[in-house]
Amino acid sequence: MSLNNLDQLYRSVIMDHYKKPRNKGALEGSNVTIDMNNPTCGDRIRLTLQVNNGIVEDAKFDGEGCSISMSSASMMTQTVKGKTVEEAQNLAHIFSDMMLGKEYDDSIDLGDVEALSGVSKFPARIKCATLAWKAMEKGVQNESENK
Predict the structure, then answer these.
(1) According to its UniProt record, which protein family does this protein belong to (predicted)?
(2) Domain holding 106: CATH number?
């Protein structure tokens, strides 16, 4: 597949998650709630998680922001569901490295998240893409510390 076609595919995936977000809304009975925002562009997110016995059983988000921010939140919630807290944190580190243009473990299937790889070329948009992931990291860390 040519680079131009791959770029177009990635844009399509991002817009699909933006227009039809997965896991959007409030999670009833969640035991983790994190509110975060990106003051430089106005993105805001409320992430709710259900974490039991070290497993992220469910994840939902609500908020508003640009297509990068909201599609990243949609992708992140899909990606971490069913993962252990440790796996979710590892995925967040891989995502962060990808956003910063660093080498990362590409043997792990990131699914739709891979479509956000091009954001690394736009430093002003990296905070948009990482907002939901940072909220998830903070949420699972707080949940682990409160045990």
Answers:
(1) Belongs to the NifU family.
(2) 3.90.1010.10
Average confidence (pLDDT) over 123-141: 94
Residue bearing tokens 């997110």: 45
- Provide, rounded to the nearest whole percent, the portion of the chain with pLDDT above 70: 95
- pLDDT score of 32: 94
CB burial string 46-73: b at 16+ within 10 A, e below: bbbbbbeeeebebbbbbbebbebbbbbb
Look up the pTM and report it. 0.93
Domain count of the fold of the chain: 1
Q: In what order do the strands lie in the sheet with 55-64?
A: 32-38, 43-52, 55-64
Tell me which residue of 133, 129, 136 sits closest to 18, measured CA to CA.
129
Q: What residues make up the domain containing 88?
A: 3-145
